[in-house]
């Protein structure tokens, strides 16, 4: 799901012209399309990660409740710890997303700021 972010530098180098080639390609349209693609990709990944966090949180909550009822069940304890670890991993993935998104927007703004101005509401 991070392909667009992984390849943004290459994408900008091949689609947004330097000043000497500015007349041959419509950079504003290219930057607008890339902006829309980035926005959609970031929103999609954010939604997916948050959905996974919500689902795993519900599982952890249920396992905690079961664990309180049966403190001697080691299998339940293992499963609870496994789900808690998964939840922490997913929460840290949100931080990774923030770093990836910031990097992509920085590169995008460096190359497209003179060709395209994003809407203010986003």
UniProtKB/TrEMBL annotation:
Organism (species): Chlorocebus sabaeus (Green monkey)
Pfam family, one: MIX23
Family affiliation: Belongs to the MIX23 family.
Name of the protein described by the UniProt record: Protein MIX23
InterPro entries referenced in this protein's UniProt entry, alphabetically: MIX23 (IPR019171)
Lineage of producing organism: Eukaryota, Metazoa, Chordata, Craniata, Vertebrata
GO cellular component term, pick one: mitochondrial intermembrane space
């Amino acid at each position: 799901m991070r392909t667009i972010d992984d390849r943004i530098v290459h994408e900008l180098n091949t689609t947004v012209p330097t000043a000497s080639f500015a007349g041959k390609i419509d950079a504003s349209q290219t930057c607008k399309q890339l902006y829309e693609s980035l926005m959609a990709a970031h929103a999609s990944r954010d939604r997916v990660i948050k959905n996974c966090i919500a689902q795993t949180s519900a599982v952890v909550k249920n396992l905690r409740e079961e664990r309180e009822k049966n403190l001697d069940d080691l299998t339940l304890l293992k499963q609870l710890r496994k789900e808690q670890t998964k939840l922490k991993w997913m929460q840290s993935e949100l931080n990774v997303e923030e770093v990836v998104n910031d990097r992509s927007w920085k590169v995008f703004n460096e190359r497209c700021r003179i060709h395209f101005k994003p809407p203010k509401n986003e």
